[in-house]
Design a protein that fits this description.
Polyamine Oxidase, Chain A, domain 2, about 425 residues, alpha/beta, about 20% strand, Zeta_carotene_desat/Oxidored, about 35% helix, FAD/NAD(P)-binding domain, 13 helices, 3 domains, binds flavin-adenine dinucleotide, seven-stranded mixed sheet, 17 strands
Length: about 425
Amino acid sequence: MKIAVIGAGFTGLSAALKLSRNNQKVTVFEKERTLGGLAAGFKKKGWHWTLEKHYHHWFTNDQSALSLIKELGFQKDMLIPSPLTSVYFKKRISPFNSPKDVLTFPHLTVPERVRCAIVLAYLKILPVTLALNLEKTTAFKWLPKYFGNNIFNILWKPLFEGKFGPFASGVNMAWFWARIKKRTPKLVYLKGGYQRLLEKMAEEIKKNKGSVKLNTPFKKEKITDFDKIIFTAPSKIFTLLFPRLPPAYKKRLNSIPHLHALNLLLETPDKILENQYWLNINDRSFPFIGVIAHTNFVDKIHYGNKHLTWFANYLPPDHPYTKLTKEKLFKIYFPFIKKINPRFNLQPPTFSLHMFLGPFAQPVVLQNYSKIKPDFKTPVKNVFLANMDMVYPWDRGTNYAIELGFQVADEVLKS
Ligand SMILES: Cc1cc2nc3c(=O)[nH]c(=O)nc-3n(C[C@H](O)[C@H](O)[C@H](O)COP(=O)(O)OP(=O)(O)OC[C@H]3O[C@@H](n4cnc5c(N)ncnc54)[C@H](O)[C@@H]3O)c2cc1C
């Protein structure tokens, strides 16, 4: 079969890898100049490793990703550190890594800390079969009921409001469960960066006589050149590429809201966060929702000895920040970076700024999402859809992209 795969992110490359291993003639179309989509990396002069444009790590239970890494010969190149997570609230940074941190969290009373630890433990052990029922309610109803209002207002509400903005109160509880269920204290990174894995996948596809065309957006006119097509870009783009979809199907896909990811990356001679990798900002007067210090996770020696820190945001597509230059965005963020680290006082050009926008990066799963979750099969004959709207109840991630890519390849092979 001649098969076109649209998108060279992890979903598209995984699908193409499996199909090419099964002797199918695969062509991957990627509109960008690089592999990787949302997980794509870049490398500056003087760096030994690539860095993802948006912060990335794997959990130690990301089986599909870790198996692929091993299968492609990178087992000995896996780094498995235990970087620190903290919460910024009321001008104070408090650790939030372990049950011990929950039980000593300074902004809660002792009974609240115990309650918090018990509810988190309950969510952690709840199996997926039972957790799916949680989609019938919203996190905004479930969390205050079981954690109590104070814990909800301090720990969870600011994160939901920061991440989901106007959709915060509608996100279903199964999404929150999945976030708690998945977390592992140790995280995994690949020496060299995610790009190394992506390149190895593309290399094998080519070895299996497939082709990977970068800088080549898939155009409608090419549809008849192929027996099957797998589309792995966001659903919104699918509805634009295939405008004559049945209205009910189009309405269903378009009813899933998406947020863009906007990340400002600072490359600095000094540390911004002392020793934390991940800092949740639980103060909604801040213009960003998290600070992620990559070089408190991976040694800065690989990046020209500079400290790399992201300031993270998820925003609706029409948010004014998505139209700003990196300098203007930095100007807005600067006084708040100073609140986190009063010693931070650098002015360009003593440090570098990078800004990355990830379009439609985060699907928002509302109540009873499983009823509208898209399927691989679409109303267009021989055209399959496989994207991050379909990995629910799990949240978007490269582990699920790899799993999804393999699954859609099986579906195409069966058909
Ligand atoms: C801020 C942020 C942090 C994240 N952190 C993590 C993390 O820590 N760990 C983790 O595992 N995951 C993380 N993720 C999620 C992960 O990056 C994504 O879930 C995953 O990369 C999605 O892969 P994909 O192939 O499904 O989609 P995408 O990566 O979106 O790939 C789709 C591809 O299709 C291409 N395309 C679109 N239109 C066309 C067209 N017409 N023709 C050809 N090509 C087209 C796009 O350019 C893109 O390359 C994060 C994402 C973001 C945004």
